[in-house]
User: What shape does this take?
Amino acid sequence: MPRLNAIPEALSDRPFTSQQAIGAGVTPRMLQRTRFRRLFPNVYVVAGTELTLVVWLRAALLILPADSAVSHLTALRLYGFVCRAQTPLHFSTNSGLCTRLPEVVTHRRRGRLSPRVIEYLPVLGPDRTIVDCATILNFVELVQAAEHLINKHFTTLETLWSYARVRHLDGVRRTRRILVHVRERVESPMETFVRLMIVFARLPEPECNRNILDGRGHFLARGDMIYFRFKVLVEYDGWEHERNGKQRQKDRSRRETLEAEGWRVIVVTSQDLRSARLVPWRVFNALSDRGYQGTPPQMNAMWVKWFA
Assistant: This one.
């Protein structure tokens, strides 16, 4: 039997089926050797290929119905929002043919699918993805996902509302409920998380990512969550241990400038979230010091489930 000296170029940069390999000159026996790696039944890559999400999706599409499109949590991951485990991989199709692979979930859809292309993959649109994910994610995760898609300009809040109003799909009613709490200009999922911690503790809702000016109208800073009436700023800082000295100095100068202008700055870190109940109380105390006369934080069982 002739020895395979080089991997056929047609197989070197993508997943392929055993039939494609044979067509390129690779025998079934060669496929069982260490130069190739099996990903799914009859689907392989060259050994050493980096197994990215895109590679796994391209491999799965080789054994799925031709109209299959990436959907649900997997589509959300391609849009840049990482939530929960990478597997199983989610696909939608109008075909009745479904796979029983544990790594893949196929969703049979009645209505015509209209995928877009991301990384040369067919992917359902961002608005449909939010509705689909409403059947899987919890309330907070879904708000985070929607605000991420808006922030990255994949959709708008108006477009999400328009889509949800006229569709009759699984998850659309839940999507309408969460959209009441979705805001624009939110720049990170953790900003969403902290804001919702505050709001669902029955405290006033802050404004998101606006410029703070001094009394003469000069720019002071751009803040995450702002109570202009009470001059209280809440910020989430997830990198407090990784900043270099120059960045820490810049952050301290910024805070001192705000405090000199009468602002109270509350910084919430990842460490603070380990004692989540204290965060709404810190906000409440700061607001109360500035004249807020509302009730103290109220954290019910649902709040505990989502945040604590």
User: Anything to note?
Assistant: Residues 36 and 42 are 12 Å apart (CA to CA). The mean pLDDT is 93. The chain is about 35% helix and 20% strand.
